[in-house]
Amino acid sequence: MSSTTEIGAVFCTGGALFLLLGLFFFFDRSMLLMGNILLLLGLPLTLGPQTFLGFFARKSKWQGTATFCLGLFMIFARWAMIGLVGSGNVDKAAIFDCQGASTWAASPGFTVSPSELKTIVDSFNPVAEGQLKEVQTHGFHISGEKYFALRSDENSLYGKKGKEGVIVAKTKQALLIAHYPETVQPGPATNTVETLAQYLRELNY
């Protein structure tokens, strides 16, 4: 067994362990995610890149390949979610496609209705000079709660309701919506969301 294969086997073993722990701890998302990532790293090293890619490139395996790619995408979205909520500066978050048509990941109980998403997506569109956007005059709703717009431009929408608030950031392909509680200052919450958004933009994502 080569050193590369040994490393791959270690990754696969670690991935399997994290998956089992994730199931044991009532489907702990962070552990399940880490297990998936380790398996994705370990399989190509164990099987060899050509064998790994050759298997998924077969025409007879196109459905499995599509499912595998979708799984990769969902892992990426879930990793971004954990980065937001795990920071401690955000207590709830959701990630959508940039048009708000589909939900990629969301905190339990944090839902944004189609009409709320439409208002948010429309807020990124430019308006004539001297005119105010709808969110600036009437505010906007997220998860049934009304927020007053503090900032609205082509990439960001910030809202406030009392001492809590929401940060919305748009990238080329994604829409990040995060809520911070009364115990968190707007600055750290904004920095957490905007840093992730900028990272995704740099990846052309």
Automatic annotation (TrEMBL):
The chain crosses the membrane at residues 7-27, 33-56, 68-88. One of its GO terms (molecular function) is actin monomer binding. The keyword RNA-binding does not apply. Its main location: cytoplasm. It comes from the Eukaryota. InterPro entries: PFN (IPR048278), PFN_euk (IPR005455), PFN_sf (IPR036140). SMART domains: PROF (SM00392). The keyword Nucleus does not apply. It is found in: Cytoplasm, Cytoskeleton. Keywords: Actin-binding, Cytoplasm, Cytoskeleton, Membrane, Transmembrane, Transmembrane helix. It holds the Pfam family Profilin. Belongs to the profilin family. PANTHER family: PROFILIN (PTHR11604). This is Profilin. The lineage of its organism: Eukaryota, Fungi, Dikarya, Ascomycota, Pezizomycotina.
